[in-house]
Amino acid sequence: QVQLVESGGGSVQAGGSLRLSCAASGYTYSSYCMGWFRQAPGKEREGVAAIYTGGGSTYYADSVKGRFTISQDNAKNTLYLQMNSLKPEDTAMYYCAADPLIEGWVLSRYEYNYWGQGTQVTVSS
User: What is the rounded CA–CA span in Å between residue 63 and residue 91?
Assistant: First the structure.
């Protein structure tokens, strides 16, 4: 059973930076697609960024391109999301997700079976 634990959230002023981490354990497949999602109050959960752990291909939502960077440390089984130039609209609960087989769009929450508990990011203006 894959377990995902996020950390690194917090409060920051607009223009600031945060780095989220997701520690993964319990892998049974050689590679996964891993993603970061976020959900603001009253809104649906949306995909932010994703990466294939095998080949390293990355994908980003248009709203974060050029500001956020997804990366991985395979030796530590840890996924990261570096968030720069943060905006108040980035405020949300951020979730890490993983799945060994993605058949549709990698930023669709419906494609992922394993989820962390989330870490809150709050950006003030």
Answer: 13
